[in-house]
């Protein structure tokens, strides 16, 4: 028996009974509002305090505050019980038989993601680790450190997306990731840098956003033979067949000497078969890291050398899996995705076959 005035004791007993009988959280909240809400029974009593005599107020004030605190505590405790009971019930009903075969997941792995995973599997098998970096870059990491002379066409608006501040750019290649790695990590360095890249020169076969994988090796005594060996192994593993390649001299500001690598191919019907044939198709660019780039990253070109390469992932996915139009890659058409998509539960790895 509490020392509450009788009428408050009655309220307390009744509301506590209602609280413990509440069957769910919603019902419990109705009880709380009816007693403690703005127009709640107890709240109205507390509003009556103003009209009471000082003696009455001395009794009713603390009594009402005590009652309010008791009822709030009872509501919180009941709420926790109800929530735990609901969770136990859900856990009990949701049995998951882990021995059952996984149902067909709805949704597929986008071909670009599949190819990124295949490339990561191939290069990590060659001792490369995956490095990533920001899509928004500054002039130094995207151009200057890569030996792009001032005024180089790649620097201006028709090729590059500039942010409002006129300084920052959407990276036009993932090379800034390698620059950041060379500045923050001492050689030996063996990385690939996959990611989104942006160029404002879109047309039939170029989209404003596309995907690249670039690679970099920095160590002592690195030469062009290492570059050719790694890329020849890569291309045969990627196309899962023996691929004839040729290296054709080219020019990039960030590599010297530079080359583009072509693969042999032949048409069979609408499809393209990579590997053998009379025709050549350029699939990537590469070269020995330019001494100015090494110096820009604080490395002595007489002590360290390196090679680098870069390829367009979207394009290589089209070549390997025969998609006719690059723009479909970005159209989010579920029919296209279910046709060209991959099983998300099958991880690309060399042992069980990439694709
Ligand atoms: C550092 C030094 C050198 C990366 C390279 C290419 C050649 C290349 C193109 C392929 C298709 C871009 O997506 S694409 O249009 N890239 O041909 N990229 S060498 O060279 C580097 C990178 C980083 C520090």
Automatic annotation (TrEMBL):
InterPro entries assigned: aa-tRNA-synth_II (IPR006195), aa-tRNA-synth_II/BPL/LPL (IPR045864), Phe-tRNA-synth_IIc_asu (IPR004529), Phe-tRNA_ligase_II_N (IPR004188), Phe_tRNA_ligase_alpha1_bac (IPR022911), Phenylalanyl-tRNA_Synthase (IPR002319), tRNA-bd_arm (IPR010978)
Protein name, entry field: Phenylalanine--tRNA ligase alpha subunit
Keyword Electron transport assigned: no
One Pfam family here: tRNA-synt_2d
Provenance organism: Litorimonas cladophorae
Encoding gene (name): pheS
EC number: 6.1.1.20
CDD domains, A to Z: PheRS_alpha_core
Origin: domain of life: Bacteria
Molecular function, one GO term: ATP binding
Keyword annotations of the record: Aminoacyl-tRNA synthetase, ATP-binding, Cytoplasm, Ligase, Magnesium, Metal-binding, Nucleotide-binding, Protein biosynthesis
């Amino acid at each position: 028996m509490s020392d509450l005035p009788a009428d408050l004791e009655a309220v307390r007993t009744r509301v506590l009974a209602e609280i413990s009988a509440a069957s769910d959280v919603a019902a419990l909240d109705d009880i709380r509002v009816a007693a403690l809400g703005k127009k709640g029974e107890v709240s109205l009593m507390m509003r009556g305090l103003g009209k009471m005599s000082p003696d009455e107020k001395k009794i009713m004030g603390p009594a009402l505050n005590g009652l309010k605190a008791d009822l709030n505590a009872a509501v919180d405790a009941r709420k926790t019980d109800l929530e735990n009971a609901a969770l136990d019930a859900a856990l009990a009903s949701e049995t998951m038989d882990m021995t059952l075969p996984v149902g067909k997941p709805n949704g597929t792995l986008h071909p670009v993601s599949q190819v990124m995973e295949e490339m990561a599997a191939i290069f990590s098998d060659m001792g490369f680790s995956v490095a990533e970096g920001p899509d928004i870059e500054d002039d130094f990491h995207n151009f200057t450190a890569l030996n792009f002379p001032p005024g180089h066409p790649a620097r201006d608006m028709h090729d590059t997306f500039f942010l409002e501040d006129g300084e920052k750019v959407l990276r036009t290649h993932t090379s800034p990731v390698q620059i950041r790695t060379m500045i923050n990590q001492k050689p030996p360095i063996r990385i690939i840098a996959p990611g989104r890249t942006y160029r404002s020169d879109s047309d039939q076969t170029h989209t404003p956003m596309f995907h690249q994988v670039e690679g970099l090796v920095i160590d002592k005594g690195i030469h062009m033979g290492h570059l050719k060996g790694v890329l020849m192994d890569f291309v045969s593993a990627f196309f899962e067949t023996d691929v004839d390649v040729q290296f054709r001299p080219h020019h990039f500001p960030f590599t010297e000497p530079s080359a583009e690598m072509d693969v042999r191919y032949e048409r069979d019907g609408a499809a393209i078969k990579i590997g053998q044939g009379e025709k050549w198709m350029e699939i990537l660019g590469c070269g020995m890291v330019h001494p100015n780039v090494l110096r820009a990253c604080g490395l002595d070109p007489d002590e360290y050398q390196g090679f680098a390469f870069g390829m367009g992932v979207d394009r290589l996915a089209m070549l390997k899996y025969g998609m006719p139009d690059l723009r479909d890659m970005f159209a989010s058409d579920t029919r296209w995705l279910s046709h060209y998509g991959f099983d998300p539960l099958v991880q690309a790895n060399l042992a069980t076959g990439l694709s």
